[in-house]
Design a protein that fits this description.
Elements (H helix, E strand, L loop, with lengths): L5 H20 L3 H18 L4 H8 L5 E4 L5 E4 L5 H27 L5 H26 L16 H11 L5 H25 L6 H19 L6 H17 L5 H9 L8 H17 L11 H15 L4 H25 L22 H26 L11 H10 L4 H10 L6 H40 L1
Antiparallel strand pairs: 1-2
């Protein structure tokens, strides 16, 4: 047996790490990972030798039992299972990063001024109202009527990933438009979840949460910018939201808007410190026989690193540090836990299925994503342009805008999340059935929206090239 030389093994490891970093930086990478996790989840939920284990793992209790001497006690957090841990705790981190992204775009990005924000915000509202209207028409008065929020969201990871694969076939202005629209869409989806998909509200606990939020806001106003001073109160806000009946993930959004964007140190302070540390590094550069960096130099380099870090706002640092974990750990785990639908009835794939009193959650979601999203986005954009409230993205036309709007029908992450919260007014059996049918419809609607958008973009691009 031949042994691989150590240097060859080391070189292979370094090459593998570089390949991973290059993959993670690709715009389509997150979409590919999520798609793989969806396939794995469906297999785990349906293969005879894995489905029981899959569901038993998700239903495993994770709460901490607190017992008193008299034998009485309670579980904290109440009702916490592996599935709820993913949906209520890990997804709080996801919503936190979404909130940070929205905050950044409002402060300095595509939503930073009325002129920039008006068109994508109006388009996002159209892309929410039309799918909700289609779903409501299909399911009015049925057991599925409360799921109207499911087809209203756009998954930015898949949409932007497809745009990146299509390359220069789509004008840059439309790529920016869809990205800004998806961010505005996330904000609307957050409001939908907060207002319509919570539980019975405990106003006393909600009042305590409001007081704690005010204290955090005051701490921000007086200039506190250290991480731990926000992390510990964030746990308190999460607990109060969890027991108050507001969906716990909304605490992540609230905290995102409370975290300071302003850096701890100014630019002038950094330049002074940098020059001071540079002089110290040179002063200790002549220690005989000690390579760089020696002991004192390591100390000053650490101080310089700390100063540099604090010259970037906490909000930006957290978004940068958390995004890879959210995109390549939390979201794949969410997909593994929630996309695993056990197909006990092949009619789940029949989107035209109607059951007496049940309506058709499948048809409502499918039509909402495939037709409602592009029609709503395009119609709202058309009204904004004609009323001169907004302006058409530069270098684009209505055909290409409609084609890009079709990609807005890729709902996936947020749609599945809303699906997990829907139909709680029904019996457990009906609720589970409606949610499973909803997930299948989300996958089919998102897949068809992605294919339709890609085909139309290619077709319209060829038409434009031929007319030139």
């Amino acid at each position: 047996m031949k042994l691989i030389p150590y240097y060859s093994w080391t070189r292979s490891v370094i090459s593998f790490e570089k390949s991973n970093k290059r993959f993670i930086k690709k715009p389509w990478a997150q979409g590919v990972v999520l798609l793989v996790c969806v396939v794995i989840a469906m297999l785990l939920a349906n293969l005879p030798f894995t489905k029981d284990l899959y569901h038993s793992i998700l239903e495993t209790d994770l709460g901490i039992s607190v017992l008193f001497p008299e034998g009485k006690g309670f579980m904290f957090p109440h009702g916490m299972t592996v599935e709820k841990f993913i949906n209520d705790i890990l997804m709080t981190v996801f919503f936190f990063t979404v909130g940070l992204e929205i905050k950044r775009e409002i402060a300095h990005g595509e939503l930073s001024s009325p002129k920039k924000a008006i068109m994508p915000v109006i388009a996002a509202l159209g892309g929410v109202l039309m799918p909700a209207a289609i779903y409501t028409v299909v399911n009015h008065g049925s057991a599925a009527s409360s799921g109207w929020g499911i087809p209203t969201a756009t998954d930015i990871a898949f949409a932007v990933g497809i745009l990146s694969v299509l390359g220069n076939k789509v004008p840059v202005s439309l790529k920016v438009f869809l990205t800004a629209l998806a961010i505005a869409d996330d904000l609307v989806a957050i409001l939908v979840v907060a207002l319509f998909y919570g539980g019975k509200i405990n106003f006393l606990l909600l009042g305590f949460a409001f007081i704690l939020i005010c204290l955090i806001l005051l701490m921000n106003k007086v200039g506190e910018k250290r991480e731990w001073f926000y992390f510990i109160p964030a746990i308190g806000v999460w607990i109060l939201f969890y027991y108050a009946g507001i969906h716990a993930t909304m605490s992540g959004v609230v905290m995102a808007f409370l975290v300071p964007m302003k850096p701890r140190f100014t630019k002038e302070y950094y330049y002074r410190k940098r020059d001071y540390f540079r002089s110290k590094l040179e002063e200790y550069d002549n220690l005989e026989g000690v390579p760089f960096p020696n002991g004192p130099q390591r100390h000053f380099l650490r101080q310089l690193s700390k100063t540099s870090k604090n010259c970037i706002g906490l909000s930006y640092r957290l978004e940068h540090n958390l995004s890879p974990w959210v995109n390549f750990l939390i979201m794949p785990v969410f997909a593994l836990a929630n996309a695993g639908v056990e197909i006990t009835d092949p009619s789940y794939f029949n989107i035209f299925r109607f059951a007496p009193g049940m309506g058709s959650v499948s048809l409502g979601i499918f039509l909402g994503l495939l037709l409602g999203k592009p029609i709503g986005i395009t119609l709202a954009s058309f009204l904004a342009v004609k009323s001169k409230v907004g302006s058409m993205p530069e270098g684009s036309n209505w055909k290409m805008l409609f084609a890009v709007a079709c990609l807005g029908g890729i709902g996936f992450t947020m749609s599945i999340f809303v699906d997990t919260l829907s139909f709680s007014d029904q019996s457990p059996e009906i609720m589970a059935q409606l949610r499973d049918m909803g997930k299948i419809a989300i996958l089919l609607g998102s897949l068809c929206s992605g294919i339709l958008g890609s085909l139309l973009i290619n077709m319209f691009h060829k038409t434009i090239k031929q007319s030139e």
